[in-house]
Specification:
The chain is α+β, with helices and mostly antiparallel strands. The chain has two domains: 2-78, Arc Repressor Mutant, subunit A (Orthogonal Bundle); 83-261, GAF domain (Beta-Lactamase, 2-Layer Sandwich), CATH 3.30.450. Helix content is 49%, strand content 17%. The chain has ten helices and eight strands. A six-stranded antiparallel beta sheet has the order 5-4-3-8-7-6. A hairpin with a 6-residue loop joins strand 1 and strand 2. It starts with a helix and ends in a 14-residue tail after the last helix.
Length: 275
């Protein structure tokens, strides 16, 4: 059996990145082992030179994916892997729950709808339903990331941010305008977040894409934390300001129902910590 595994690893190394493949083998070994392991044992089990194993382990430690016991000098994986797994799991479950609601919202609004979550201080689109002109095929492909400060879904996700969080976001990402309508200053952004808190939904009025409007609202978990955002997107010629006044009720109703299905807490209008 050991011989077959070694042959398989050698075959895989021919066609994939060798360093990454070795790192994954070490991660899998540590994950399956019942306790921390010494460097020498990891090298023996994976058939990887000790010097290479040490470099990989140090890289994992630097990125907080592994730790070394200061007394025994043994290595073990950190809970960051659980965190990543929970993120993926939550996204997949949210997509399953939200999909029929996206379809319903698209049918009611007669526009494209999408679901977004926050990753690395960006709004990342993880699902969508096309409207009549397939607008989202060019605007919101799954996996596309967009700034928080100039998108409807992003503004909804910013409801989680404290004043300190917002300062860190601005320092890290900046407030680069994507159009002439984009928010450009912290003062404008704070005012916009307070407005979203008060009314329960967010508007992107040509702030991310010229000629495109968006109405979005937050999805909350059982703690009241915003875990995602759902939006309706369409060309301004069709999603007029008058039409927005109708669509916003559809969006808020859908996000309230999704939050309820997820065991979410729905705050009263106007609630929330001041930014």
């Amino acid at each position: 059996m050991a011989g077959r595994v070694r042959i398989m690893y050698e075959y895989v190394d021919q066609f994939y990145n060798k360093s990454l493949n070795r790192a994954l083998r070490i991660i899998e070994l540590l994950a399956h082992n019942k306790g921390p392991m010494k460097l020498q044992l990891i090298a023996e089990k994976t058939k990887i030179p000790e010097s290479t194993v040490l470099r990989i382990l140090n890289t994992l430690i630097t990125n907080k994916y592994a730790q070394q016991d200061s007394d025994t000098k043994k290595y073990f994986l950190s809970l960051k892997f659980s965190y990543i797994g929970n993120l993926i799991s939550s996204q997949l479950s949210i997509r399953d729950v939200v999909k029929p609601f996206l379809v319903e919202l698209s049918e009611k609004s007669r526009e494209s709808t999408c679901l977004a979550v926050e990753q690395d201080a960006m709004a990342v689109y993880i699902d969508y339903v096309d409207g009549p002109d397939s607008l989202l095929k060019t605007l919101h492909l799954i996996g596309r990331a967009a700034p928080l400060h100039c998108t409807g879904v992003g503004k909804s996700l910013l409801l989680n941010y404290s004043a300190e969080d917002l300062d860190r976001y601005i320092k890290k990402k900046g407030l680069e305008p994507l159009t002439e309508h984009s928010i450009k200053t912290k003062k404008q952004l704070v005012q916009e977040i307070e407005k979203v808190k008060s009314q329960g939904y967010a508007i992107d009025d040509e702030e991310c894409e010229d000629g495109v409007r968006c109405v979005a609202a937050p999805v909350r978990d059982y703690m009241g934390k915003v875990i995602a955002s759902i939006s309706v997107t369409g060309p301004k010629s069709r999603l007029t300001r008058e039409r927005v006044e109708v669509v916003k009720y559809y969006v808020v109703d859908i996000t309230d129902r999704v939050s309820s299905n997820l065991g979410g807490h729905l705050p009263s209008v106007g609630s929330g910590e001041k930014v």
